[in-house]
Amino acid sequence: MLQYPNLEQALKYHFGYDRFRPGQRQIIEDALQNRDLLIVMPTGGGKSLCFQLPALIKKGLTVVVSPLIALMQDQVEGLRNNNIAATFLNSSLNPYKVRSREEAILSGKVRLLYVAPERLLSERFLPFLDLVKEKIGIAAFAIDEAHCVSEWGHDFRPEYRQMKSLRKRYPDVPTLALTATATDRVRADIIQQLGLKQPSIHIASFNRQNLYYEVRSKSKSAYAELLELVRESDGSAIIYCLTRKKVDELTFKLQNDKIAALSYHAGLTDEERSSNQTRFIRDDVRVMVATIAFGMGINKPDVRLVIHFDLPRNLESYYQESGRAGRDSEPSRCTLFFSFSDIKTIEWSIDQKTDPQEQLIAKQQLRQVIDYAQGTVCRRTIQLGYFGERFPGNCGNCDNCRYPKPMQDWTIEAMKFLSCVARCKERFGMLYIIDVLRGAKSQKIVQNEHDQLSTYGIGKDKSVDEWRMLGRSLLHQGLLEQTSDGYSVLKLNPLSWEVMRRQHTVSLAVPVAQKINWEEGSEKAVEAEILMQRLRSLRKQLADEQAVPPYVVFQDSTLKLMAQQQPTTITEFGKLSGVGSHKLSQYGDKFLTEIRAYRQEKGLLDPPQVNFTPSISLPSDTEIFTFQLHKQGLSVDEIAKKRNIRPTTIIRHLADLIEKNQSVDLNQLVSLEHQQKIWQVLEVLGDISLTPIREQLGESYNFDEIRLVRSKWRRENRK
Ligand code: ADP
Ligand code: ZN
Predict the structure, then answer these.
(1) What CATH number does the domain containing 339 carry?
(2) Predicted TM-score (pTM) of this structure
(3) Could you please report the per-residue DSSP string of 672-696?
(4) Is the domain of 182 the same as that of 228?
(5) Which domain holds residue 594?
(6) How far apart (Å, rounded) are the C-alpha atoms in residues 401 and 209?
(7) Residues with CB under 6 A from ligand 1
(8) How far is the CA of 79 from the centre of ligand 1 (A)?
(9) Is the pLDDT of residue 516 over 70?
């Protein structure tokens, strides 16, 4: 095994991240113990790192099984940009390329190999794998998208079934199975089908905290709202529609409104689809309008907005599709537009099904989607409940939690509605009843002499949409029934009569108009946004030069940090989360130049630098090493032990680092109270040696504390 002082350092070095996401560390420790693992994490949870980091630490080749060529290429590109030796073998390569990659593998140069399952188990490949095992060893098999082994999953692939033979052939190579699919049945199937041995099972919460969930009613202004959402979001967006036709129409409208949008559906040729997809991933266009054919295997981490313009089929698909937003954990938005006519369309298509069992399931699933869309409780509670996870609510990041809908008493309106149903002899559907209530002069109403009813025209004060909302809610609350013969005739039940007799009140959650502004635009934020745009174009340019997606160069979160903190030295730059050793040397200078140029144009003075104030020098290598460990939260004694240096030397490093303008966390080292007292003495006595200061302060103060605070005082008083 390669030796790192600790896992955090390995993480920073290779991937540039400061800390592990929940669960990652434990999983990696288990993997380093050669345990079999089942890892269930939501999309964007950070599954890949769980096998990638161990692959860099362990001896031998890690073989990753992945079902889709696009996914493999993505991951390999990302790894290479961190200077990690990874490669893939699949049907897109010619024999010559395959041979040269195999040679590289056998020479031990490759840490991670991505393969498709059918290749892995082919007669030509297995003997090669034997050779790899003999010559350089196999560190682990990582089975990505492991739910593909299960017929119960939504994405069954028969090739995955044969994976068990791998286990038989290499019983001592640990296997990791990874999936984002949540149900118990699929999990059990994975363990069984892959023959995992006493696997350590990690199931992360499916709560995606960074996603804002909201449901809007699909009213006449829906397109305008959609356009506003797209304009307001600064980043990529996916808009899902039910049919190809709707996709094409919406794309056309958006393009007319000067939005860079493309479409994706089964009606396009393979080339068109793949070219549109690439242009979306590379940020050449911002918006993809698509049927649900789009998304599987798309790894784009910086999608900021996913809109469902039509109702999704079931909650599981809604979770997966909306979950394509914000894989990088940055705040992102998931909006569902909901309309009653959509329900009608889906109900109609359910009625076309011939298998009664299928029909039943589809109806139940539709019910759950409606429950979600019409629910007034926290959206997360409903979603996570669907996966068997209890969530207490009050997430603060869904529409229902942010803008609780006021409950209103609609008993009177309900009485009007129900008695109208009664007077029409329970023979009509909702729209007809609403027409009668609102006093419509349709031929049918006149023919039926329903314009003579006492309920005719008593509901003019409410709009069609409002009556519909009430009608739906009555159905929903079980205060009214509807036939399921395709005609949806409204029928009364005993509860309906209770309402009409005033024995039952009816409350309704009334939607409130939502403001779109959900991020405050302080002046500072606006400034950062301007710089951010410049950094974005630089990133795009660098990405295009290498023909990779921009996020492979730096992720949005890292760009954001650059814009906010505006580092001006390479040391500061290297500390940003997302900047690993390789990216620092590859891109550091270019981004620094851009940031400096921006600051200069803005008339912002650079913080003291070598060329301006010769008295301040850059930290030495040994100081930087100490600094890195300090940044990881290690105490002085721990750093001393790790580096095999005396603690006083570490203190000297830290003190010098403070004077050299590095962001040492003084609070971690000296109590606030002591800092204040020492500071006061320095203000009085000035910059003098440590002993007289200590005399002034007394025995309870030690020299180390005084030295550290004095350095800060010196730095502040130098100007
Ligand atoms: P999954 O496969 O679970 O959907 P990924 O492995 O693609 O998720 O990771 C999602 C995103 O999170 C990637 O962009 C990845 O680089 C990033 N990521 C993973 N681990 C960390 C971490 N510890 N700190 C910051 N970002 C991380
Ligand atoms: Zn909520």
Answers:
(1) 3.40.50.300
(2) 0.69
(3) HHHHHHHHHHHHHH-S--HHHHHHH
(4) no
(5) 521-531+548-603
(6) 13
(7) 17, 20-21, 24, 41, 43-49, 301, 327-328, 555
(8) 12
(9) no
